[in-house]
Known about the structure:
This protein has helices spanning 3-22, 34-40, 43-49, 54-65, 86-98, 109-126, 152-167, 171-174, 190-198, 222-231, 254-264, 301-304, 319-323, 356-390, 415-428, 455-467; strands at 145-149, 180-185, 206-209, 235-242, 267-271, 296-300, 312-316, 397-398, 406-410, 434-438, 441-447. By secondary structure, it is α/β, with parallel strands linked by helices. It has 3 domains: 3-70, no CATH class; 95-363, Aspartate Aminotransferase, domain 2 (3-Layer(aba) Sandwich), CATH 3.40.640.10; 370-467, Aspartate Aminotransferase, domain 1, CATH 3.90.1150.10. The strands form 2 sheets. The chain has a 7-stranded mixed β-sheet with strand order 1-7-6-5-4-2-3, sandwiched between helices. Strands 8-9-11-10 form a 4-stranded antiparallel β-sheet. The relative contact order is 0.14. It is an enzyme of class 4 (lyase).
Amino acid sequence: MTFRADLEIVAAALESQVAAARGRRTPVLAQRPLLDLIEDLHLVRLAREGGLTGEALQRFTDAYLDSIINLHQPGYMGHQVAVPHPAASLGALIDGLTNNPMAIYEMGPGAAAIEWFVINWMLEKVGWTPAPAESGQRADRTFGGGVLTHGGSLANLTALIAARSALRPDAWCRGDQGDLAVIAPESNHYSIDRAVGILGIGTRNIYRVPCDSRGAMRPETLPQILARIRADARTPLALVANACSTAVGVYDPLRPIGELCRELGIWFHVDGAHGASALLSTEYRHRLDGVELASSLTWDAHKMMRTPSVCAALLVRDHRTIDSAFSQQASYLFHDKEQPGFDFLHRSVECTKSAMGLRFFMVLAALGEQGLARYVEHQYRLAEQVHDYLNGIDGIEVAVTPESNILCLRLPGTDARQLTLRDGILDHGDFYITSTEFQGRRWLRLVFMNPETTLEDVKRLVGQLQAMEPLKSDGAVG
C-alpha cells in the first residue's frame, strides 16, 4: 500500500467518526479494561510482525476509534481540552511527517517563523509591544517576547525560572539560597506547586492568598502576607494570579494585584492557561483588566483556541527576562553561524520542540481572529444561559455565577452522592462531565468546550441526573 492509500483509509475513518460524534450517534465515552483493548488492537502481534497497512490499518484504526473519548460529541462537557478544528489536524499531519524540531532556526525555518508570528500576535492581544523581526532593530529597545511550550505546566515553570533569573542572576550557578517565597491564591493550579518544588524553593514556602466566596483572590490581604514574608526573612520571588481558576473558572482581580506588584517590584505572573483567550473578545476582555501590568502570562492554545494538545505560550512583557532565564553550553548548538532567523532554544526547557505554532496558526488562519472570538463568546454565553436555567430548578445549587465557560452544580446529597451521579452519567454514555472540590464541598463540573453543545443538551443532562434514584443511605445534605 502507498502512503496516499493509507492516508485515505485513516481520513475516511476519522471523517466517519467525527460525523457520528457530532450527530450524537456514538457515546462520548465507553471505557473498557486495559487488557481488553490491548487484545482488540492486536498490539502484541503487530509489534512482533509489523504490517500495519491496508486492511490491517483499517481494522486497527476502527478498533482504536472505538476506544476514544469523543470530544466532538456535544455531550462532552468534561476537562479543559479543545475540540480541535479540522484545520489543526492538517497542521499536525504536516508536522508529524516533516518532523522539524524547530528550537533552532535551521532545523525548521517555517515553523520558527510561524512561532515568531504567533508569539507577536499574542503579545499584541495582551497589550505588550511585539518584537521587531530584524535583529538590528532589537538593540536597546524594550519589547515583549515569548515561547511556545508543550503545555501550560512547562509555561508556568519557565515563568518562575525567568522570575528567579531576574531576581537572582547568579542563581543558575549558585542555586537556591533558601530564602525565596512564592505568593499564590488558595485556588492556584497544581502546576505552580510543582514548579516551586522543581526549583527547590519548597512548597512550604508558598504563601497562600485567601479567596472570597467566589474563589477569587482577595488583594486586600496582600499587605499582611507580604509582612509575614518579611518577618520570615524571605524574599518574594513572584506573585501568581489566576485568569481563570481551574475549579470554577473565576478570574482574580488583576489590576489591583498588578499595581501593587509594580509598586513593590515583585514579578507578577498571570496563569491564563484557560481564560486568557477572553482577550480576543471585546465582550469579555474586561475579565483580564490589568493583565498588561503582568511580568509574564501563560496562555494555552490547546484549551480555548480549538488547537489539539499541546500548544501553550509563555509571554513576557520584557523579552530580556526570558532571554536570560536559562544558561547553557552545547557546542553543537551554540556557536557562530549564519542566522537569518531566530533560535527559540535559549527560551525553552525543551531542546526538541514540535511545530506547535503550525497547528495553532492553521486554526487561526481558518477561522480568523473574529471567528475565534465568536467561539469564545459562544462558550461563555452558554455558561451564563445554563446558570440562569439551573437557578430556576429546585434542588440544584450552582457554586458561583460563571465568569467563563466553566460551571459547577450540585444536587441534594453528600459529596459521595455527587461522585455517584457522575459515575451514573458516564455509564449512560450520552455525556461526559467531571467533578471538583470548591469551598470544602464536592461539585459536578461542566466545561463547555464543544462549539455544538446547546442548552438543550444541558437540559437532557439535568434530566438524567434527576432521574437517578438517591442512595437510601445518602442524606439530603452535604
